[in-house]
Design a protein that fits this description.
about 140 residues; mainly beta; ten-stranded mixed beta sheet; 10 strands
């Protein structure tokens, strides 16, 4: 088994945040390998969030929409939906940790652009979305 002595930070180039009628948020991102272990979402209250998926992998979300940041800052939990092409790989809840500043420790890479899945609409419908925001930028 290979030892990994650093944390890998992947930048999510495109993601989507939706809100349902109960004020709950879901964040759609690219699927990553492996099962999350004690994930948490750190949010700086400005434009950046860091999903600490496990102790070795974190996913960086930049340029969070200004309307979204207030809702996200007030959220205790969000739902993470990981997509692989047109397949929902996994859905899980994570606590939101509001921090003064996000500290990036590790080696940063760039993730692939999100491919919108056909089944994404089914998840949004089941979630009961009433608002939707996008962040980041499309390549």
């Amino acid at each position: 088994m290979e030892n990994q002595y650093y944390t890998l930070i992947e930048k999510q180039d495109f993601y989507e945040i939706i809100e349902n009628k109960y004020g709950e948020l879901a964040i759609f991102i690219d699927a990553r390998a492996g099962t999350p272990a004690e994930p948490v979402l750190e949010f700086d209250g400005k434009k950046t969030a860091l999903l600490k998926r496990d102790k070795w992998l974190a996913v960086r979300l930049d340029n969070i929409d200004s309307e979204t940041k207030n809702v996200l800052a007030e959220s205790e939990f969000v739902m993470i939906v990981e997509l692989s092409g047109d397949i929902v790989e996994r859905v899980y809840g994570v606590p939101v940790d509001n921090v003064e500043e996000i500290v990036f420790n590790g080696r940063q890479t760039r993730a692939n652009e999100l491919v919108k899945a056909k089944s994404r609409d089914e998840v949004i419908k089941a979630f009961g979305a009433v608002k939707s925001w996008t962040g980041g930028k499309k390549a």
